[in-house]
Amino acid sequence: MNWQWILAVGVLGSVSGTVSAAPEARCVSKTGVAGTFERTMTSGGWARTYLLHVPESYDGTTPVPLVLNFHGLLKSGAYQQDYTGMSEKADDEGFIVAYPDGIESSWNAGFCCPPATSLGLDDVGFAKDLVAALSEEYCIDPGRVYATGSSNGGMLSHRLGCEASDVFAAIAPASAYIAVDDCAPDRPVPVIQSQGTADPIVPYWTAKASNEFWAANNQCLASGPVYHKGGATCYAYEGCAQDATVEFCEVKGMGHTWPSDDGPVDWLDDTDMFWSFFEAHPMGD
After folding, report:
1. Which of 48, 133, 167, 278 has its CA 20 to 30 A from that of 142?
2. Cα separations (Å) of 173 from 11, 47, 89, 92, 169?
3. Inside any domain, residue 96
4. Residue 192 lies in a domain
5. DSSP states along 160-222
6. pLDDT of 37-94, one tens digit each?
7. Total domain count, the chain
8. What is the pLDDT of residues 217-227, one digit of tens each?
């Protein structure tokens, strides 16, 4: 991947051998502009579409984070933008967010969901191709690329943690579980999940079991509560390898949804919570 990085000029210290602070990474030759765009690209022989939102604060030289936000089954990238409100968060915090579209509104997250699974689509490859393409056009920080999603899209974010941990610094699935039989990431992956206890589509225990897998993979110690409001409680594991934190937020009585402050139950806001988690977990720090 051609990042086209340059370093801002540093100033050497005196002859005593002292030097200035480490120079800041910058970008050159990045032509991408701010705005919201409907895009098409080719990946794996398929024409793939996505919605891209770039905040007005983007200046083309300062490396910024990138979030891929995957929709649920039978939904779309445009729906996911409205559903999660993440573009507004991107404007506030200065990151780029892309909302890819699944083929026939589905993602191959492993054993879920058709028709993407029956077609054998390489959606992991598509996600990586999308990151590469956006990184050629925009000044993306390669250590701050993240994946999130709801339902089938959350399952795909799990799979990206399993199979593309060299690209994605952290993942944040909502109402989802790991849908591959063999999850073998190359490194400990920071993970935060949200799950309703009354979800009729993704049973609570499947999401909880997936979170426990990540805790074991990251060699974490016992977990304890770190947040409580109304029926929402979040737990965090301590002592994880390479500071790859694992967190799980459950909402009593909540169904299959992406909780938000604007919803009927305002105990938890996934968009705010997931971004805060991403911000705290760049790759390599």
Report:
1. 48
2. 44, 25, 17, 22, 14
3. yes
4. yes
5. HHHH-TTT-SEEEEES-----S----SS---EEEEEETT-SSS-HHHHHHHHHHHHHHTT---
6. 999 999 999 999 999 999 999 999 999 999 999 999 999 999 999 999 999 999 999 9
7. 1
8. 999 998 899 99
Q: Which domain holds residue 141?
A: 5-280
**The tokens of 108 are what?**
């191959």
How far apart CA 106 and CA 24 sit, in angstroms, is: 40
Encoding tokens for residue 221? 């110690």
The CA distance from 259 to 9, in Å, is 45
Are the C-beta atoms of 155 and 179 separated by less than 8 Å? Answer: yes
Q: What is the Cα 94 distance to its own chain's centre?
A: 15
Residue 224 lies in a domain: yes
The pLDDT score that the predictor gives to residue 78 is 98
Token readout for 219 is 């060699």
Task: Please state the pTM of the whole predicted model.
Answer: 0.91
Coil, strand, or helix at residue 101? coil
Closest CA to 272 of 244, 232, 240, 213: 232
The answer for residues whose C-beta is within 8 angstroms of residue 257's C-beta and 6 or more apart is 150, 175, 196, 263
* CATH code of the domain covering residue 226: 3.40.50.1820
Q: 126 lies in a domain? A: yes
